[in-house]
Amino acid sequence: MIQLEPVDYLETLIQQALPRWNITPEASLKLLSYSENATFLVSDEEQKWVLRVNRPDYHTENGIRSELAWMKALREETGLETPLAIEGLDGDVLQFIDEPKTNTLRTMALFHFIEGKHPESEDLVAAFNQLGAMTAKLHVHAKQWKRPEYFERLHWDLDGAFGLKPNWGHWKTGFAANIQGIEIVEKAAAYMEKRLHRYGQSNDRYGLIHSDFRTANLFVHEGKTKILDFDDCGFGWYLYDLASSMTFLELHEQRDEIIHSWLDGYLEVAPLSEADLAEIPVFMLLRRLVIMGWAGSHPDTELAQEMGVQYTIDTIEFAKQYLANQVFDHQSLYKKGA
Fold this sequence. Notes:
338 residues, two-stranded antiparallel sheet, Kinase-like_dom_sf, five-stranded antiparallel sheet, 9 strands, alpha+beta, Aminoglycoside 3'-phosphotransferase, Chain: A, domain 2, 11 helices
């Protein structure tokens, strides 16, 4: 279970770090999000930045450098607008601050501020069309990019989701995982695992992905969708990125329309086979269960508390739809084009 540190303690560490980027320690700090990492808005009278304090036991130093290297390559080689890390006065994009509590070094990274706001409900269909095309560009790049020798990231396969040491915690440890009806989720999960084993992890189906495309990690500005937060990027099934973009939207009244829009954008850039499309409900269930595991291992976070028992109740409903083949009919794509 993840224990959140006091915000004022993190602010003290940040104030020590800011001069590393030639920013006054008196700069204003505002907490933006607090989950795996703590992210702050840093501002003075002239400029704004975003500073991330990395959780000490989530990624290795090489893992964080790998994330920043891919973000930089995507920005330079595809034109995708990703957060740009800022080098410190020593030329390094990572800064290490002595942490008196543990006698270790805490890793921080500073990024240029990106203008925009999260997509509104009425903008989802249009935003997801752009997101689909952007995701395809990201995947095409991932398949071709020569990764640095030090590159290492987490895997979001079945072992990473539900193994002995899952990345975020097992779904069975989530909120209210023993409530009435949970056996339906267990049945759906078992069927999902069989399908994923059969689908396999060939290079055209599994590789480097963003893995957390939920709307909280997207900004829209002047009609353009921008990608934020690559902290969970790693190796997984490519269509898991569609599922991650549907986080908290699995029961949305416009679900199929949103998925269609994403696929329309994606297919303009890169192909997907019928076998890929047939597994969309599988990946949506996988993502749903991964988020259940996250909530159970992060009970102190604001998001987990907002999700509460209702997320488990909704997961049971989604599992019912999944088992009844009512989540998404990939054949509708062909009917749509007829």
